[in-house]
Structures are given as C-alpha cells and as structure tokens.
Amino acid sequence: MNSAISVTTLNTQIKSLLETTFINVYVEGEISNLTYHNSGHIYFSIKDENSTISCVMFKGNAKYLKFRLEVGQKIVINGTITVYTPRGNYQLLCNKIEPSGQGALALAYEQLKAKLQAKGYFETSIKKALPKYPKKIALVTSPTGAAIEDMKKVATHRWPLVELVLVPTLVQGEESKYDIVTSIKYAQTLDVDLIVVGRGGGSIEDLWAFNEEIVATAIFECNKPVISAVGHEIDFLISDFVADIRAATPSNAMEIALPDINEHRIYLDTLSSEFKTRLKNQLSSKQSLLDNMKNLFEQNSIKAKFTFIDEQIKLLKTNFDNYLKSLINTKQSGIDLLKSSFLSNHPDKKDLKGYAQVTIDNKITKLDELKPEDIIALQSPKTIVSCKVISVKKQ
C-alpha cells in the first residue's frame, strides 16, 4: 500500500502540474465579480454557460491595459494557470486582455458555421462510429510538425499494435486548404480504418485552413470516420463540427481513437483471476457434491446397514444389562430394607427393662383397649406372664 502524502505535498504537486501544463492559454468569457484593488491589482472571474474561473491581473500588467474592465463584458485572456498552495485554489493569471469582438475572420467563421449547419453538416445522426480496435490509421498532417510526433508517441504508448500511415499535408498558408482536401480524398482510398485530420496550435490565421468550406465538404463527404484534431483544447474549428469526432489536441485524437493497452491488460488479468476463481469454485462445488454422494452411498451400503444393526444389537444388549442390573439392585435394596427392618424388630432387640408386650390370645393389644377381667399375657423375649386385669384407669 502506498504511503500517504501531506496536503501541502499534494497541493505542491498540483501546482507544479498545472503551472507547467497550462503555461500560455487563451480563454474567452464574460466578466463577473470585478474588483479594482487599491494595490492596483484587478480581481475578477470570467464565465460561460457552464463554468467560472477566478482571474487576477497584477499591477505590472494592469498598467498596460488599454480599456477599463466592466461586469458583463466579453473578453479574451492570454495567461497562465497558477495555484495558491496554502488554500489549494487555482486561478488564471492574466498577462494580456483583449475585448472580444467580431473581426473579419470571426464573422466569416460564424457565417460559414450557420451555412453548413443549415445544410446538415453538423447533424449527429449522420456521424460515423469509430472502430473499437483500429488496425491502421491515416494521419493527414504536416510531416515536420510537433503534432505527428505527439500522435506517434501516444499511439506507441497506448496501442502499439496500430499502424500509422502519414499522408504529408500542408496545414498552413493560402494553399493549405487545397492540399488538405487532396490528402483527405487520398486517405479514404487507403486500407485504413479511420482518418485523423489536424495540426498543432497556432493563431486563428494559422488554423484558418480548417475553417474553409472546401475542407468541411471533404470531411463531410469522406466515406471513412474522421477525427478533427486541430490546435489546442480552446480552439474550435469548422472541421471540428463537421468531423465525426472532435479531439481537443492531436494527442487527444490518439487517446480517442485507440484503446488503452494497459486497461486491456488489467481487464485480461481480471478475467484470468475471475476464471481461476470460478474454476476453483466449480471444482470445490463438484468435490463437495462427490463427497456428499460418497457419504450417502456409504451410509446406505450393506456394510453400513450391518454396522447399524450390530450397533443396535449392542445397544439393546447394553440397555438390557443396565435394566437387569437396575432391577437386581432395586430388589436387593428391598431385601436389604426388609432385613434391616426385621433385625430392628427382632425380639432380642426389644428386651428392655420395665417393658413387656401385652397380648390377648397371642394378639398384640394396646393398653387403652384393655377392660377389667381381661386375661392377658405379658411377654418379653424370655418370659411370659399370664395376668387378669383388675381395673383400667385412663388418664
């Protein structure tokens, strides 16, 4: 198990990651929560329909600002992501701010976007699905740009089984739109599973070829799935809307197009573990069933029945012996009791001075039952005296 790290360490690592990744970004949004501080710094937020990010422009850059910021104003910021470690907050550190306005290119972009949308170029229902495990991918991009190296690197790491086919293409300049169209048409004739059209980041002028109608039409009419991977994540080109899939960057295009081999390795390991577990459980279950059947067979075998009968006979014999012993003991106890009573009542035991047994006709009689003139006998173990009752006095 990995050891835990401190909050400070985590925030420091996040700070390092964000500040080295988002070094020079362009962000467009609407101003809110605006504060001009006495120090000369400007604090505010920018937002769109779904998100908000905190921003700061320090005095050193704020003094070059040509206009006053206002709440509700739409602007474009060039800046860097920075993290305030003690609180774990991140914000956009603004280097330059420009008002967001429609120039000639922006207007052309909106007009073409509306036109193509009306023609159905952006309909999601006609988008082609990407193959799950592409064997061969055509890359319509510059052979010398950073984009091709980034895509090769990601593809090699993510899914080494794929084959990349480079279609060298001019991706910047006035003639680039024609070369892009030619390359797309050529790529769809190849034995490839999908096509990636793109290039690295740049200015709107550098990326403008991917906002041309003939490029959009070539992508729309392509008979193979197309991924548009132009510029950075903040860049949205006409090609992004027409393509079957839009990738934030060329590297992201490879992440979208290719499965992750490590995930599949983990998945295969999981399947292997599940298979072993299920096999073990099945074998254990069958072994238990076999043991139960064996026990049941042994319990119902001739040998088991004879053993059971033999045990019953032994039990009966034991019970009989115990009963006979108990009966003898009971009778012996009765005899011993009679013997004890006999011995305790033996005439020899009753020869006490001053005591004699009164009988009439050899029958023991109580004194209070005697009447005058009765002839009685007074008897001890050794002597018998015949007497006549003279009187009876009761107390």
In words, what does this structure look like?
The protein has 395 residues and is α/β, with parallel strands linked by helices. The protein folds into 3 domains: 7-101, Nucleic acid-binding proteins (OB fold (Dihydrolipoamide Acetyltransferase, E2P), Beta Barrel); 105-123 and 132-262, Succinyl-CoA synthetase domains (Rossmann fold); 349-388, no CATH class. It has 10 helices and 14 strands. The strands form 3 sheets. Strands 1-2-3-5-4 form a 5-stranded mixed beta barrel. The protein has a 5-stranded parallel sheet with strand order 7-6-8-9-10, sandwiched between helices. Helix 4 runs parallel beside helix 8.
Q: What integer value in Å does the Rg equal? A: 56 Å
SSE series? HEEEHEEHEHEHEHEHEHHHEEEE
CATH class of the largest domain: Alpha Beta
Name the strands of the widest sheet in spatial order: 1-2-3-5-4
What's the average pLDDT? 88
Strand content: 15-25%
- Low-confidence segments, given as residue ranges, are none
Number of helices: 10
Annotated CATH architecture of the largest domain: 3-Layer(aba) Sandwich
Number of strands: 14
The CATH superfamily title of the largest domain: Succinyl-CoA synthetase domains
How far is the first residue's CA from the last residue's CA? 107 Å
Structural class: alpha/beta
For this structure, the CATH topology of the largest domain is: Rossmann fold
* Principal-axes shape call: elongated
| Helical proportion, percent range | 40-55%
Largest sheet geometry: 5 strands, mixed, barrel
Count of discrete structural domains: 3
